[in-house]
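job 3f2a | input accepted
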Amino acid sequence: MWIQTFAGIGYLFGSISPIIKSSLNYNQKQIARLGVAKDLGDSVGFLAGTLCEILPLWAALLVGAIQNFIGYGWVWLIVTGRTFPLPLWAMCILIFVGTNGETYFNTAALVSCVQNFPKSRGPVVGILKGFAGLGGAILTQIYAVIHSPDHASLIFMIAVGPAMVIIALIICLLLASYLMGVMLVEDLIDVSHNVVIIFTAILFILLIIPIVIPISLSFSQEPRVAAEEALLLSESQKQDPENSEHDDGHEVIVSEVEEEKPKEVDLLPALERQKRIAQLQVKLAQAAAEGAVRIKRRRGPHRADFWLMFFSLLLGSGSGLTVIDNLGQMSQSLGSNNTHVFVSLISIWNFLGRIGGGYFSEIIVRDNAYPRHAAIAVAQVVMAFGHFFFAMGWPGAMYIGTLLVGLGYGAHWAIVPAAASELFGLKNFGALYNFLTLANPAGSLVFSGVIASSIYDWEAEKQAQQHNDGQLNLASVLTSFLNMDEPLKCEGAICFFLTSLIMSGLCIIAAVLSMILVYCTKTVYAQMYGKSRT
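job 3f2a | predicted structure (534 res):
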């Protein structure tokens, strides 16, 4: 959860962009290009997914921390004048590299926790992604406590914070807690020398534990295997005796080995657990060759199911990110100057959507053996109503709209990773997850960068033309001659009326795609979870 908190540093770009703009004399178009680089860095995680399959997770986390430190650290040096400025394309690369460190945090945390808690994927993913959604608000609050007059120090905190947390969490969290307790006890209580010796002995025990655990597991490997074989045979004998009258042997589904494995296997490290499951499958195949059991292959998902998932995510999540990116202009067009209030609100609803979406989808899957994407369809319909409220511009529409869109957007990132791990397995989950995250910048690029911005500028130009129609004065002539026009601003619900209606329609289409995916994967989920209900 601590790691995931720093996987949300991309949400702080709106807070650091003003100081970058003023320090480097950038215009709004140049800042927008940095924003695109940030979105790409936050979503392009193929390298992170590959490295998480090759390297141990702590090494992948360290790579992400180094990228984050170099990217944002260099930006901080440039903004504070400690090094020479770079051209815009080089700044885009630095922002991309720094933000891309998030993908390592996301991938490592999700892959490890989905493997360690395979029967609680929905809640686990929801909690982790929820902390990523809250990351920006948490870091902003920490920065507010520091109360530094230098706004560039926030960039320094973004550069240094993740590296500090990753290293501290990997190496010495438990040890530091123990030492703090010991020092407090020794400071508050007059302890004898023997007690100090005991404390020191416990300290050495804590230092030795990381070595003792793998050694003990290696020595206790054979008894565990024997117990697993016994349990596998007992499970094969639990088949319906009526079926045995018609078949020469028992019928076993190979992929159910993952679900029916002994509880002790869940306590093993991920690589060791996969090795044990593979051994069970080999023994099952040998039993099938001898005629003891008959292997039945489970129907798996098709490639089309993955693309249904991707485009449903693109339409739903992309429309939500469009609101997040344009929330400042949306609130200003409706006459509100407290844009930070709505930014904070949608972050909170985003967090609650991720938590609630994970638990809600888990109920659908575990209690009803129904596809998890049914929950996504519900979230997308909720988002459609939220966009409709934005379009109408009624009193309180900003509050209701941020509530509905925030909840629905957050639910996407709790449910989709869990569903992908169920349908396509854990072997290449890191790569699959990072490919799915490309739906975010792809949707934002089209919906926000093309549709929303074009309609906003068009409405703003219409209002400016109506305002200046028939009015010609010396000031307007000089302004046009000197090319000093201020950025066009649009006022009223009309600014995002058409955009919000389009986003609402896209969410409905996304819900339809999700329900098609539900129909296509009903058999898969019934095979995976139907047995656990009986």
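job 3f2a | Residues 497-533 form the longest helix (37 residues).
job 3f2a | closed
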